[in-house]
Specification:
It comes from Rhizobium phaseoli. This is RidA family protein. The chain is α+β, with helices and mostly antiparallel strands and 183 residues long. The protein folds into two domains: 39 residues, no CATH class; 102 residues, RutC-like (60s Ribosomal Protein L30, Chain: A, 2-Layer Sandwich). It contains three helices and eight strands; from the N terminus they run αβββββαβαββ. Strands 5-8-6-7 form a four-stranded mixed β-sheet. The longest helix has 19 residues. The two termini are 21 Å apart.
Length: 183
């Protein structure tokens, strides 16, 4: 949905000023039943004009997830193309899987990095991760958090962890998929 300045049909204090401010202001409207709020968030890391990096949003009135290796939300800039990376497991270049969870996680993130390289993308262009963990328990969070922080630094993507009883390959313990904002 594109909103041009003045064509929204609402009275608004944002009608004056740069068109981008008006568009962002109106992204607080409903979209397919969801309310999307992108203004008034004082902890947003904003994209530079012309830069297609995602904008990280961690509202101050919510728990700060950054110590745990993720962000609350990430906004893909208008006009950006998205790429979807299939789940990357912990297989090495021969297809072998270590029985060790930490080794599989480290290798899966190395595989994700190789997929990003294949797209000509960087870790700071990842908007969303979905991770699948076999027989998840709290002891695995430290391994997951460490690997995410090593891979993404301060550009922590939004992330969802899904505990599962099993993955596609019997000995696979971890899988990560990603949504990437391409430049």
């Amino acid at each position: 949905m594109r909103i041009q300045s003045g064509d929204c049909g609402r009275r608004c204090s944002q009608s004056a000023g740069p068109r981008e401010n008006h568009v962002i202001h109106h992204q607080t409207s409903a979209y397919r039943g969801l309310i999307i709020m992108t203004t008034g968030v004082s902890t947003a890391t904003t994209a530079i004009a012309g830069d297609l990096k995602p904008t990280i949003v961690n509202p101050k009135n919510l728990y700060d997830p950054t110590p745990n290796g993720y962000s609350t939300a990430v906004i893909a800039p208008r006009g950006a193309r998205l790429a979807y990376i299939s789940g990357q497991g912990g297989q090495d270049s021969t297809g072998a899987l270590s029985p060790d969870f930490a080794v599989q996680v480290r290798q899966a993130y190395a595989n994700l990095r190789a997929a990003l390289d294949g797209l000509g993308a960087r870790p700071d262009q990842v908007a969303k991760l979905t991770v699948f963990v076999v027989d998840h328990d709290m002891s695995k969070l430290e391994v997951l958090t460490r690997n995410v922080k090593e891979t993404f630094g301060a550009a922590l993507p939004a992330q969802t962890l899904v505990p599962v009883p099993k993955l596609a390959i019997d000995s696979m313990l971890f899988e990560v998929e990603a949504v990437v904002v391409l430049e």
